[in-house]
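Encode chain A's predicted structure.
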Amino acid sequence: MQRAFALLGTIVLLMGLATFSQAETIYISQDFEDAEFTVGYEFTSMSDGLGDASITEGLWRRGYGTHGAYPAVSDISARSGSKSILLDREYDNTQTYRFWGYTEVPEGDGITSGQFVASAYFNRNGTGGTCAAFRPDYPGNVTDSSWETIETGYVSFSDGELKARTWKGVNAWSDPILTVPETGWFGVAMVVDLDTNYYDVWYDDGSGWTEVSSDIEMNNPSPPLAINSIQFLPQAPADGYVLVDDIMLYSGSTVIPEPSTLALLACGLLGLLAYAWRKRR
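Encoded structure for chain A:
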């Protein structure tokens, strides 16, 4: 009986682990603690890269414009450890930063259907007019300037108001969802469903992730390449910038494990603990 109980607990635990592992396939993850970047390097469009081009740390490029704007690693108010990335807008409003986890983009390598999560932590650093939006991207050939953008909508904060955008029909910003702090870190995440053409917005004020807006309509143009990058669009006064840290892009359904998955893991673990306790007695 005890062995059967232990076997059942093991099976349930393995089911929970399998469910959890299937829920998260990470495509991008970077916290900048070990990142080494060339600061101040000028480049036009996507003719050259910046920083390490390894899969583990990803590759940064600026999308548009010809001025010498660049992402720089900063020690200012780092969320975790001692580093974050600083995205500024020195000259105009055409600066777009893209970050992906591959030096080359194989066709179909990435998220093509189902649900995925894009998340990052931001710090407005008291710059007032700073607006930073991010959205998933379908990248084209990284050796030239061709990009295909997925218009699944994106989230942004402008003058302290967090908003979401719908591309379905009206192509407009939503009413303000909440107010983000002028200084200090906060997390924003998109939970996108490519099959239903809806996405949800999650927010972390430091106490954990909470869903703050749901079922936002979007378009899905279904370009030929898979999602494996995130796009950042910092807009600020000439001396403004935004800090970004702990970037994630992964397949899954929420930014935290599903309650059912946690229940499976808990049941399996309790079963094994009970068996061990009985056996010891």
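Residues 192 and 199 are 4 Å apart (CA to CA).
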